[in-house]
Amino acid sequence: xxxxxxxxxxxxxxxxxxxxxxxxxxxxxxxxxxxxxxxxxxxxxxxxxxxxxxxxxxxxxxxxxxxxxxxxxxxxxxxxxxxxxxxxxxxxxxxxxxxxxxxxxxxxxxxxxxxxxxxxxxxxxxxxxxxxxxxxxxxxxxxxxxxxxxxxxx
Length: 154
What we know:
Layout: H1 3-18, H2 31-39, H3 63-79, H4 85-91, H5 106-118, H6 124-130
């Protein structure tokens, strides 16, 4: 990753996030898109917006990671299986907040799932099951929070 590519990515990120400085509802971008930029999640489901496409390789949570998790969640959704967060972690070889044998960490899964939730895919029952008390870590409750998007300029 060149310094120029990184600088252009950071400039675009700042430009997009600044559209929400007076509140997410004031931004021309969807909350899910803003959250994806802030969290470093490649915004896979925002094909109609092209601002992220030239910076595809700069997102820490890659397109491939988002596609893979989307595929896994869609499979559970289609099969009507009750997927809990801890079961998802087992499937992804994640063992606790900082130990991952696979390609994902707990934090990355939470950030990707929050993007999907804000994008309004799946229904409330699916998200409620994923974030069931005692079947998920406390930080996973943020996935399905009705709280407005918070931009932290990470």
